[in-house]
Amino acid sequence: MSVLTQTPPPASTFDIEKVRRDFPILHREVRGKRLVYLDNAATTQKPQAVIDRIVRYYTEENSNVHRGVHYLSEVATEAYEDARKIVKDFLNARDVKEIVFTRGTTESINLVAQSWGRRNIGAGDEVIISAIEHHSNIVPWQMLCEEKGAKLRIIPVNDQGELSIEEYGRMLNSRVKLVAIGHISNALGTVNPIGKMTELAHAAGAVVLIDGAQGVPHGTVDVRAIDCDFYAFSGHKVYAPTGVGVLYGKQALLQAMPPWQGGGDMILSVSFEKTTYNALPYKFEAGTPNIEGVIGLGEALRYIGGLGVANVAAWENDLLRYATARLQEIKGLTIIGTAAEKASVISFVLEGVHPHDIGTILDQEGIAVRTGHHCAQPLMMRFNVPATGRASFGLYNTREEADLLVEGLHKVMEVFC
Amino acid sequence: MSDLRELYQQVILDHNRNPRNFKELPGATRKVEGFNPLCGDHYTVFLTLDGDVIREVAFTGSGCAISKASASVMSATVKGKSTEEANQLFETFHSLVTGDTSTVDTGELGRLAAFSGVSEFPARVKCATLAWHTLRTALEGEQETVTTE
Known about the structure:
heterodimer; A: alpha/beta; seven-stranded mixed beta sheet; four-stranded antiparallel beta sheet; B: alpha+beta; 6 helices
């Protein structure tokens, strides 16, 4: 039975109609057509519950957190710290002390590069990343290595978009201090074997950071099962507001790390003679945080938990298989990234048509895809393409939308052929 | 689809498929690279100047249909023109694609008028103007790489 005739997961496990009703923006029109939003790897839309929660925060609860003895400040602080607990549970971390709120994945990685990296990486040391990383998991390490005289080494990728674990194993030696790897590739959809890679890294005495920006939206993330030392993700990629993200770090590591940004809230006491720093996780949360963002993130994770992470993954997997099969029917279309294990991200090129033109024509049909290098220029060069079109499916997308994408691509070919 | 037809006119599709002056120019007086980091459009413009006149112009590179067609039409348009005329055409073209048509007489534009549709697609303006920015830098005698940022 082909995937095209297989039926998607039954409504009893995933009521897609109800889910779509939860997301108000999905019901707007774009260019006179219904919105077909297939750019979830760039950012996701927000459920009414998250929108309402933020409005309620400002209508009834708003106050600065962690100070003040008045009622609103207590309420705001409780909402903020509740969100921290929700994140801790979502990641299966051991302790809330291990959950630091940041501005997003990029900031989380920079925090580790500057705080942990500067103290632990020296001349002659090595940092391993892969050939398919997002710029946010390349540039901070380039900057650190240049500053410290360390060497950046790259795990090669095969033509399917899979990392060579054999080669990775050979690269691990006593000079390697850090391995920084994406959980899921935003450009190719490849799911990397981060559990295995962490195990190998630890055996060689290296610390592991996982860029989880695409990991958290697409399935269960159990940081203790993976055993990574750091895990970073962004709220806006998982149905939460922009401007908020998380750095998970093992307590012992975070404890030993010097503070990153200095200022209010990350201190215990300040005098001009000496300043002492706050305990975890506050040591890494200087200044007034993005309180609305954090609370929104807590609500988003609660929403996904309500749907069931496994149900979401099953729904998206069906979409991936269906959309892949339908796209492969198109003559002249090549899918870039055909790893055995993938998330619902499909990069493609169309013979004779530049991705930028594909994107413009699809946009006229109300279809939002991303075109370009997806903040992964080294990856584009490896696959010998200047850019790709990328359709990335989220929990509210449907097979019908995959059909509309295919129809749109036929229109593209009409214009160009 | 009518908006799209205005953007992807026959002239543009033709010049994308068969770009004119699409080759290197050995012995060129000027050679400048232009680059749109957002989408990867990347071209090199070659010029041979004879005093003030653009005797030869050619380009190589790759990119979207709008950028390639624009480079092609540009090359055909400025060949044989003076530096001053070419710069004037740049200004006119820029006004055309950004929708500032108050100063533009489309009758004078010839094939350049095919790009008038770009004004409805702000995200594509940089594609249309990349080759022209690169040309202007080449005319000014600068050797830097031009980017759209």
